[in-house]
Amino acid sequence: MIFKVCVLLSLFTISLYAQSSLRIENTNFTLSQGSYVPTQQKRYLYNYNRLRLYYDWDKGDYFMHTSGDIVNYFGKKFIDSNSFSYLRQLHADTPIKMQSHFHHYGKGDINTKLYRLYGGYQDDNNRLVAGLQNITMGVGHIWTPSNLFNPQNSYALEPDETFGVMALSYTRYIGTQSQIYGVLSQRKDKSRKYAAGYKTTLNMIDIALNTIHSNDTNMFAYAIEGDLGDTGIDVRSEGAYIKSRIAMSSGREEEKKFFQGLVGADYAFEHGLNLTIETLYSSETFGYDDLLANFNKELFANLAMAHWHLGTTLSYDFTIYLSGSLLYIESLHSEDSRFISPSLRYILNDNNTFSIGAMLYGGSQKSEFGMQKNSYYLKYVLSY
Predict the structure, then answer these.
(1) Backbone torsions φ then ψ of 13, nearest 5 degrees
(2) Whole-prediction pTM value?
(3) Direct distance between the N- and C-terminal alpha carbons of the chain, in angstroms, rounded to an integer
(4) Which tens digit of pLDDT belongs to each residue from 230-254?
(5) How far apart are alpha carbons 173 and 262 in whole angstroms?
(6) Closest by alpha carbon to 284, among 225, 242, 345?
(7) Alpha-carbon separation of residue 352 from 69, 188, 233, 356 (angstroms)
(8) Is the pLDDT of residue 5 over 60?
(9) Residue 379: beta bridge partners?
């Protein structure tokens, strides 16, 4: 039913005369990547290319957005690897498939994917959106433990690239400082996931309370964000109380109850250096085999391997064209390990951007990050 409403709303918006815009973006990675399988010492050199088409439409209070991809992997050894088999199994948790089968040719594989498709209505007091969309919850910059719809994955090559959710979302604005909102989404197994929340501003501090319910999970969460006086420091906290059935490495499901939360702060220095610090705590921890058993489940991003993680990001603009960033995450487990992701970006002009970066892992072979292999990449983005 939700999908039918989404389609009807999209068709309705298209039928009206309105302003529209079309944009094309091509993102290309050349990667040297280690195997995802900890016991394999193999390394693959391959090319990943994503051609994305954006189409936006609006007329008065009505709007629509569509974006879709043509995705190509090129490199025979990688295509034939267990690592690529893992990638092929990742799908959006939606009632219909949003991507085609991979089509093999020579040394490559290609497929198509619908990234976003939603339409809606917005005025001064209401916002209604239906379709394949992104649901935003939480205030974390490195982790978002209270978001069971589109959690950020800071360990990924592209942390902001998340699967869409087939949903109907509504926000009611109460005055200028408060809002209530709700989400009704449909999952791959045709079951439904519900969310409701309230957000307000008190003395320049944003406070949100959320609840999420699905067949597998119940979550109650909070998010707080504000300025620390006149210091220029932005502080935030986010937490979630979770009760969920989780697939274990033993092959059976167990009900787990745990808390996961973070505290963080941001500060922008005078000469262009931006600093973010976050600490993530989880009262329950999980092993590597447990993560494998839940890699395509809604709670995957919340399955922490250590009680404490400490993360920091640094970004700096050397010139108007050249900037750099660094993400550092330390897993404070019985055997400490770390994830480091530096990158350097050069903007040639409005249409061409080049980046070079790495994803580095340190620690013993039995630690969270030590079992993974380093990756290096060259990225080129062409937009027009």
Answers:
(1) -65, -40
(2) 0.90
(3) 37
(4) 899 999 999 999 999 998 877 788 8
(5) 27
(6) 242
(7) 19, 37, 34, 14
(8) no
(9) 29, 355
